[in-house]
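User: Here's a structure from my thesis project, written as structure tokens. My advisor, Dr. K., wants to see whether a designed sequence matches the one we expressed. Can you design one independently, without my sequence as a hint?
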């Protein structure tokens, strides 16, 4: 791709996260928010004005047909991620799709096959992987600074005030804590320790919608364990602790978008101040641009295989707790 040309983005779904993403897109020099699509033309127009997009569409299909767009950011409920990603790639567009990229492993395999068949870049928007603090933590651990990891503890829990039909609580839209927020502690552990040998998990379900409201997970490895938690029922610490044979790393609230972290070693605590650029989406956006300009269909940092592994882990958690989606 011509380096002097800006990369033109289209956004599908004008909800909560799409607004935050668009705000970070505006600080990326070689990015242009070209078009936005909503199921409602008023919503699309409001979004267009707020974020200075060139065009707005009242249907996702119209945006898919726009040949000017290089890459689509999908910010709709989980249940629609796979179908929209596949459709966008079949319309000759690269894709950055919000997490979780799909409901299960089967859908993920179809997404990856579509990316390969059409030679289109696809990445799951696992923004924490590109966060400067997380990148530094992973390097420190890979360099052996805290020795061998023996224990990880991370939670992601807050009290939701969303209505029963919201994407968060509605099973028809992929609701439930595991896929929405449990994905973060699972991601942290997978990124540092790989695929667990064994997973134990238990959930408490919503009385009416039957989505999982809170889920506790143990990931067991030959030489390490992780105790993880996600919930919509109450606020927790939202911290992550990584304990190694030679030290510890603590990430404070909200650990999934850290602005720094602490290393505790030899009875000393050292704080590393590593703020994000913008809200934190800028880092994954820059990775998309890097890969597209290099003609890569996947990121080497958060690859297709990484997404496949993570969703397979979440499939196992759901199997353990007995959570199935109607689709
Ligand atoms: N990376 C992060 O930190 C982060 C944070 C929050 C959420 N997310 C992910 O982003 C995705 C969207 O989350 P969100 O919090 O932005 O949700 P949201 O505020 O509910 O927005 C989702 C948007 O999807 C569109 N949509 C399409 N079909 C829909 C349906 N049947 N019901 C409801 N909305 C529908 C709507 O846009 P239109 O009405 O404009 O068509 C809606 O505004 C989720 O998959 C979530 O996991 C990521």
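Assistant: Designed independently from the structure alone:
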């Amino acid at each position: 791709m011509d380096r002097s040309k800006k990369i033109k983005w289209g956004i599908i779904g004008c909800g909560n996260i799409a607004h935050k993403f668009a705000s970070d897109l505006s600080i990326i020099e070689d990015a242009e928010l070209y078009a936005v699509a909503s199921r409602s033309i008023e919503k699309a127009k409001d979004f267009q004005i707020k974020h200075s997009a060139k065009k707005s569409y009242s249907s996702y299909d119209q945006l898919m047909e726009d040949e000017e767009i290089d890459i689509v950011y999908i910010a709709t409920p989980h249940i629609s991620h796979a179908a929209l990603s596949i459709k966008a790639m079949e319309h000759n567009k690269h894709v950055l799709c919000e997490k979780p990229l799909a409901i299960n492993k089967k859908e993920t395999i179809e997404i990856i096959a579509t990316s390969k068949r059409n030679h289109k870049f696809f990445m799951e928007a696992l923004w924490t992987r590109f966060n400067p603090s997380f990148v530094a933590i992973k390097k420190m651990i890979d360099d052996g600074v805290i020795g061998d990891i023996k224990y990880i503890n991370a939670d992601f829990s807050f009290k939701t005030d969303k209505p029963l039909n919201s994407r968060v609580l509605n099973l028809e839209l992929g609701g439930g804590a595991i896929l929405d927020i449990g994905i973060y502690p699972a991601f942290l552990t997978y990124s540092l320790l790989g695929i667990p040998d064994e997973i134990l998990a238990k959930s408490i379900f919503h009385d009416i919608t039957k989505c999982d409201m809170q889920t506790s997970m143990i990931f067991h490895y030959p030489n390490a364990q992780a105790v993880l938690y996600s919930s919509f029922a109450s606020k927790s610490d939202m911290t992550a602790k990584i304990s190694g044979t030679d030290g510890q790393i603590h990430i404070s609230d909200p650990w999934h978008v850290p602005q720094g972290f602490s290393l505790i070693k030899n009875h000393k605590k050292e704080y590393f101040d590593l703020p994000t650029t913008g809200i934190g989406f800028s880092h994954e956006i820059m990775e998309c641009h890097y890969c597209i300009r290099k003609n890569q269909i996947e990121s080497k940092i958060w690859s297709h295989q990484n997404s496949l592994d993570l969703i397979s882990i979440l499939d196992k958690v759901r199997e353990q707790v007995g959570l199935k989606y109607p689709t």
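When you compare it with your expressed construct, this may help: The domain at 129-279+311-321 is CATH 3.30.360.10 (Dihydrodipicolinate Reductase; domain 2).
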